[in-house]
Design a protein that fits this description.
240 residues; alpha/beta; TIM Barrel; eight-stranded mixed β-sheet; 8 strands; globular; binds iron/sulfur cluster
């Protein structure tokens, strides 16, 4: 089942659909751009979950790992129509910074039709060196300014170039600017040249900060390790 309700932390419903790939396709830690689909599976998956989404759902996130504007016009329209038909209060979408100029008209489109869109950016790191190591796209803005466009941010931990000390600084800074922060603990996709640094992961799990983040509804930790208590609405994304 591709629809689920997240009860812990940031409460929302999610649907998981296939990615169309990613036009950046350069991040060394990412499997999304290897999963290029023509969009027809995403359309089919949206139809499959439609009847499971209750009318008037408060918050619905579309999860695919890709940017909204990487989808074809047809899939973009299907997602927006789903939100309108179901009377969704807030639709949460992901968007790379390259496409951020497309966000204001989409926000207006939603507002004119009685719903709201909130946006996730996959920053992964606020260190330029770390982002370069990971192969992330360059960003021609600062992270504070981006928080006027994006409400939610994803960052990566468990790869060799980020210390736990830096992670703590990142979380504290990003929580000043963004509504929620998701820490994705790195799981290398097949063929990745970057390994998971388990020593760093253990440092996180044994820390006082980890216990605090578990209680903080603005911080979400995603890992296949049960200690993370990851809640993804019962959808097993680690198997996908
Ligand atoms: S921008 Fe996102 S989807 Fe594209 S390659 Fe990087 S992590 Fe993957």
């Amino acid at each position: 089942m591709r629809y689920g309700k997240v009860h812990k932390g940031f409460v929302r419903s999610i649907i998981v659909i296939d990615s169309p790939g990613c036009s950046w396709a350069n991040c060394k830690f990412c499997a999304v751009h290897q999963q290029v689909a023509d969009g027809s599976t995403a359309l089919q998956q949206i139809e499959e979950v439609r009847d499971h989404i209750p009318q008037g759902e408060q918050t619905l996130q579309i999860v695919s790992g890709a940017s909204f504007n990487d989808y074809s016009d047809k899939v973009q329209a299907a997602i927006l129509l789903l939100a309108m038909d179901k009377g969704i209060g807030t639709l949460i979408l992901e968007q790379r910074s390259e496409f951020r100029y497309k966000i204001p008209p989409l926000n207006k489109f939603a507002k004119d039709r009685g719903f709201k869109i909130e946006w996730i950016i996959g920053l992964e790191s606020i260190s330029r060196e770390d982002r370069d190591f990971l192969g992330k796209e360059p960003i021609d803005s600062n992270y504070y300014n981006l928080s006027h466009v994006y409400q939610h941010v994803n960052i990566l931990y468990g790869h060799p170039t980020k210390s736990f000390k830096i992670l703590k600084k990142e979380i504290s800074k990003l929580l000043e600017w963004y509504r929620t922060v998701t820490i994705n603990i790195y799981e290398p996709p097949t063929g990745s040249t970057i390994h998971r640094d388990q020593e760093k992961v253990e440092e996180l799990y044994s820390s006082a900060e980890f216990q605090e983040w578990l209680k903080d509804e603005r911080v979400d930790i995603q890992d296949s390790d049960p200690r993370a208590q990851s809640d993804f609405g019962g959808i097993d994304t680690f198997e996908r």
